[in-house]
């Protein structure tokens, strides 16, 4: 497959990355290079092979259900750009 | 031509755990903003999620309760989207391999029973909350809810009316609260419903659906679906096409409105979360959860009908919630006749609770105390009508039935001689009624019984009055 400039712009928008018009074709060329490698992988016959979601063959570690985390709001909010009444302030959310 | 309505539900149930799904922060509702967050919940770089065992166990409980397949291996995935209440830029969810697949629940509309199949149920984290008050042109974000464990339960599109959809949501609510995986508190958002609605001509392929988001009451759900169905039918009949969209229901106007159309529908770009290896559930774990599962509503209903000789209707009413069923069984265990206990609980007790907009957990008369009252009706110390008055007094004062009967002198007059004397007095004073009865007016007999009960201040045994009166008039 080959990504068009429109595909590149769409992917960039979904990832909230700013890609200027001048950069689009170069980014597209690089992405297509990556997809080329993936195409090689996809050419391998994997019939009968269980899909692998993780490279390491380990199971998820589980923890006991206890609420031990202290309230660290002050420390966390000290590095936030804007806070008020205990809330983080962000550019207005329009729905 | 008729239209067929097609409805499927996605329900987000908040799992009742102490801590969050991937962090040790508390999940308690109503705390000061952002006081219940850990590094994972606010997405500080490098913070890694660690799965809560109880959240998994609750998902297993649900799977077993609805006869679904509990996957021995399931995978967490990242669902990518940007929103300020989702600090990581993705929600950890499950996509290709959910923890629970399949299963079904029975719903009931009127006298009709129907099985609704479930597609899947998967574990995921909740997002935070946006506070839309105006902070100098900015929005406030509270991340206390971020990371609260959710089980998203997805049904097949098998419901065919608003009534069926509501019956399904209620049945699901009943199951999750019954097995104790969710507190079911809809006001606090513990049980949130998204409803997919489409219409089609019978036999044709599925129509385009619109999704009504975040319904948090059964009443609104019914209103929203009815409105939406009419809207879609009108659109199509007017020659328009339905566009796939996400919509909100406004309870004030009773209408649905567009939140976002498909144009900017999300492309979530799911992929397996590299931070979380597959969730593996052992046979032993499933076996243990199965052995600890409480008796489920349907099984209990069948047992009530059989063991206590109750009607299907009464058995179903009493098993509407685990608390109610427990109250009934405790009443019987304390010596009340099962049928009488059923009548009192589904009758007088339920009616009083309804009036006070309370449920059985708030009933001031304990099961043992109710049994104390029923025993006095069983042994003819008081009659049924006096019993209702006694219950009212028990409700208000918290006193035992025996205390109230004694104190207020409510004991039924079972002495035949005394009852006879009262009846003689009534007959002498009501010659006109006696004549009416003798001339064939059956109604006059009931009036005379009423007079006798009144003369005894309600303390006579109605059956005994009937019997003696019949003999005297006969």
UniProtKB/TrEMBL annotation, chain A:
UniProt keywords (A-Z) are: ATP-binding, Ligase, Nucleotide-binding, Protein biosynthesis, Transferase
Q: What is its EC number?
A: 6.3.5.-
Q: Provide the catalytic activity annotation.
A: L-aspartyl-tRNA(Asn) + L-glutamine + ATP + H2O = L-asparaginyl-tRNA(Asn) + L-glutamate + ADP + phosphate + 2 H(+); L-glutamyl-tRNA(Gln) + L-glutamine + ATP + H2O = L-glutaminyl-tRNA(Gln) + L-glutamate + ADP + phosphate + H(+)
Q: Which Pfam families match?
A: GatC
Record GO biological process: glutaminyl-tRNAGln biosynthesis via transamidation; regulation of translational fidelity; translation
Whether Ligase counts among this entry's keywords is yes
Q: What class of enzyme is it?
A: ligase
Q: Which InterPro entries match?
A: Asp/Glu-ADT_sf_sub_c (IPR036113), GatC (IPR003837)
- For this protein, what is any one GO molecular function term? glutaminyl-tRNA synthase (glutamine-hydrolyzing) activity
Name the family the entry cites. Answer: Belongs to the GatC family.
This chain belongs to the protein called: Aspartyl/glutamyl-tRNA(Asn/Gln) amidotransferase subunit C
Automatic annotation (TrEMBL), chain B:
What Enzyme Commission number(s) appear in the record?
6.3.5.-
Function per UniProt: Allows the formation of correctly charged Asn-tRNA(Asn) or Gln-tRNA(Gln) through the transamidation of misacylated Asp-tRNA(Asn) or Glu-tRNA(Gln) in organisms which lack either or both of asparaginyl-tRNA or glutaminyl-tRNA synthetases. The reaction takes place in the presence of glutamine and ATP through an activated phospho-Asp-tRNA(Asn) or phospho-Glu-tRNA(Gln).
Q: What is this protein's record name?
A: Aspartyl/glutamyl-tRNA(Asn/Gln) amidotransferase subunit B
Q: One Pfam annotation, family name?
A: GatB_N
Enzyme class per UniProt: ligase
Report quaternary structure and partners. Heterotrimer of A, B and C subunits.
GO molecular function terms attached to this record = asparaginyl-tRNA synthase (glutamine-hydrolyzing) activity; ATP binding; glutaminyl-tRNA synthase (glutamine-hydrolyzing) activity; transferase activity
- Residues in Asn/Gln amidotransferase domain copies: 326-473
Task: Name the UniProt key words of this record, in alphabetical order.
Answer: ATP-binding, Ligase, Nucleotide-binding, Protein biosynthesis, Transferase
- Any transmembrane segments, and where? none
Query: What HAMAP family does its record include?
Result: GatB
Belongs to which family? Answer: Belongs to the GatB/GatE family. GatB subfamily.
Reply yes or no: does the keyword Ribosomal protein apply.
no
**Gene3D superfamilies xref list:** 1.10.10.410, GatB domain, N-terminal subdomain (1.10.150.380)
InterPro entries given in the database record: Asn/Gln-tRNA_amidoTrfase_suB/E, Asn/Gln-tRNA_Trfase_suB/E_cat, Asn/Gln_amidotransferase, Asn/Gln_tRNA_amidoTrase-B-like, GatB, GatB_C_1, GatB_Yqey_C_2, Gln-tRNA_amidoTrfase_suB_CS
Record field: catalytic activity: L-glutamyl-tRNA(Gln) + L-glutamine + ATP + H2O = L-glutaminyl-tRNA(Gln) + L-glutamate + ADP + phosphate + H(+); L-aspartyl-tRNA(Asn) + L-glutamine + ATP + H2O = L-asparaginyl-tRNA(Asn) + L-glutamate + ADP + phosphate + 2 H(+)
NCBIfam families, alphabetized: gatB, PRK05477.1-2, PRK05477.1-4, PRK05477.1-5
One example of a Gene Ontology biological process annotation: glutaminyl-tRNAGln biosynthesis via transamidation
Gene for this protein?
Answer: gatB
């Amino acid at each position: 497959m080959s990504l068009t400039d429109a595909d590149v712009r769409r992917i960039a928008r979904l990832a909230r990355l700013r890609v200027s018009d001048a950069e689009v074709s170069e980014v597209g060329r690089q992405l297509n290079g990556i997809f080329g490698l993936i195409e090689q992988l996809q050419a391998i016959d994997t019939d009968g092979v269980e899909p692998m979601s993780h490279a390491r063959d380990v199971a998820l570690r589980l923890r006991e259900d206890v609420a031990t985390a202290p309230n660290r709001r002050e420390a966390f909010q000290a590095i936030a750009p804007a806070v008020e009444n205990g809330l983080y302030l962000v550019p207005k959310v329009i729905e | 031509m008729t239209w067929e309505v097609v409805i499927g539900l996605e329900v987000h149930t908040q799992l009742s755990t102490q801590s969050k799904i991937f962090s040790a922060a508390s999940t308690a509702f109503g705390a000061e903003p952002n006081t219940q967050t850990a590094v994972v919940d606010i997405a500080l770089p490098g913070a890694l999620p660690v799965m809560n065992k109880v959240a998994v166990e609750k998902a297993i409980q649900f799977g077993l309760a609805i006869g679904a397949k509990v996957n021995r291996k399931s995978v967490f995935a990242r669902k990518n989207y940007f929103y300020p209440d989702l600090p990581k830029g993705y929600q950890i969810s499950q996509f290709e391999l959910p923890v629970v697949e399949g299963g079904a629940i029975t719903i009931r509309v009127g006298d009709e029973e129907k099985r609704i199949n479930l597609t899947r149920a998967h574990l995921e984290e909740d997002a935070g909350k946006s506070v839309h008050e105006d902070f100098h042109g900015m929005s406030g974000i509270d991340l206390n809810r971020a990371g609260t464990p959710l089980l998203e339960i997805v049904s097949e599109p098998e419901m065919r009316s608003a009534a069926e959809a509501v019956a399904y949501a209620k049945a699901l609510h009943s199951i999750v609260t019954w097995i104790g995986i969710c507190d079911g508190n809809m006001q606090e958002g513990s049980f949130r419903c998204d409803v997919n609605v489409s219409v089609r001509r019978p036999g044709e392929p599925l129509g385009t659906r619109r999704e009504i988001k975040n319904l948090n009451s059964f009443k609104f759900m019914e209103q929203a679906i009815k409105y939406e169905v009419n809207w879609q039918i009108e659109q199509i009949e007017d020659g328009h096409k339905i566009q796939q969209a996400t919509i909100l229901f406004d309870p004030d106007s009773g209408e649905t409105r567009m939140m976002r159309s498909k144009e900017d529908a999300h492309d979530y770009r799911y992929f397996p979360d590299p931070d979380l290896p597959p969730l593996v559930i052992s046979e032993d774990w499933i076996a243990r959860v199965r052995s600890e599962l409480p008796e489920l509503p349907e099984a209990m209903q069948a047992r009530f009908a059989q063991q206590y000789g109750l009607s299907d209707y009464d058995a179903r009413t009493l098993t509407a919630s685990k608390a109610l069923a427990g109250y009934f069984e405790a009443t019987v265990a304390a010596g009340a006749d099962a049928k009488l206990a059923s009548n009192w609980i589904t009758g007088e007790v339920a009616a009083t609770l309804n009036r006070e907009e309370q449920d059985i957990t708030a009933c001031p008369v304990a099961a043992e105390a109710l049994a104390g009252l029923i025993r006095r009706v069983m042994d003819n110390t008081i009659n049924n009508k006096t019993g209702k008055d006694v219950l009212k007094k028990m409700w208000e004062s918290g006193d035992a039935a025996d205390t109230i009967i004694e104190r207020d002198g409510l004991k039924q007059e079972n002495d035949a001689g005394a009852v006879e004397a009262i009846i003689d007095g009534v007959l002498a004073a009501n010659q006109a009624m006696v004549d009416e009865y003798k001339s064939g007016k059956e109604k006059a007999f009931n009036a005379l019984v009423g007079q006798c009960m009144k003369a005894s201040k309600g303390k006579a045994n109605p059956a005994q009055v009937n019997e003696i009166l019949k003999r005297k008039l006969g």
